[in-house]
Amino acid sequence: xxxxxxxxxxxxxxxxxxxxxxxxxxxxxxxxxxxxxxxxxxxxxxxxxxxxxxxxxxxxxxxxxxxxxxxxxxxxxxxxxxxxxxxxxxxxxxxxxxxxxxxxxxxxxxxxxxxxxxxxxxxxxxxxxxxxxxxxxxxxxxxxxxxxxxxxxxxxxxxxxxxxxxxxxxxxxxxxxxxxxxxxxxxxxxxxxxxxxxxxxxxxxxxxxxxxxxxxxxxxxxxxxxxxxxxxxxxxxxxxxxxxxxxxxxxxxxxxxxxxxxxxxxxxxxxxxxxxxxxxxxxxx
Length: 285
Ligand SMILES: O=C(O)CCC(=O)C(=O)O
Fold this sequence. Notes:
By secondary structure, this protein is of the alpha+beta class. The chain has helices spanning 4-13, 24-38, 70-73, 75-81, 84-94, 231-237, 270-278, and strands at 15-18, 51-53, 64-68, 98-106, 116-119, 132-138, 149-151, 164-165, 168-169, 183-185, 192-196, 201-203, 214-221, 241-244. The protein has a single domain, classed as q2cbj1_9rhob like domain (Jelly Rolls). It contains 7 helices and 14 strands. Bound molecules: 2-oxoglutaric acid. 2-oxoglutaric acid (AKG) binds at residues 106, 116, 149, 201, 203, 214, 216, 270.
């Protein structure tokens, strides 16, 4: 359970770190589960419905970049997403009626782990209100060197930063980010970051010799209904499910308006979208 001070910190700063949320045994079990899910896949031949590979490796390289939706595909993670400890912590932040939204595992392997550029999670999936939390569990010791999360505190109550160029969604902030305000969030394996879905965040490429594996889950208030944004809404809503409390009879609205992500081409992963954006492929022709 989170303390009142921790909840206050989350509300004020837009994030909170809790060390040792996971036991050593849980961390080991999650890493074993990830290894099993990844086994036998290579850049040239992998199950693209379940994972994305790091691009900068030989064709027979086995470095996975991301495992998709572990809490829906593997019972080890699914059970964790429904656990009382997990849901009690989320309830302390969002209230009693909770929807599980999505999960992923970002591997950030040593030497090749891709960067994640500044973005706010709600830019990807607009909701009727901002009651949405992204929860990052470090499964390795995360440091500045191996690409721990960085956040910009106290920015979650303002307007969404622009993620657009020429009206098209870029998957990353396209206006100037004052990086002097950025705070690195290191943590030991087993620690967790609860981050408001409007908190800008990023992480650098992992050029170190240590991996930085991170399990990420997201929940939202049950009265935070998705704003229909085309195919992306289907993609993210397919796994959404009520995990605690009551299904609401009303949607709660917070912002008078909210940007809708308009993709220039087919929907691709955050990494590919940000890379295409860097290369200028996401602007109008
Ligand atoms: O893995 C990271 O460092 C950041 C993760 C993230 O922001 C995302 O996957 O949306």
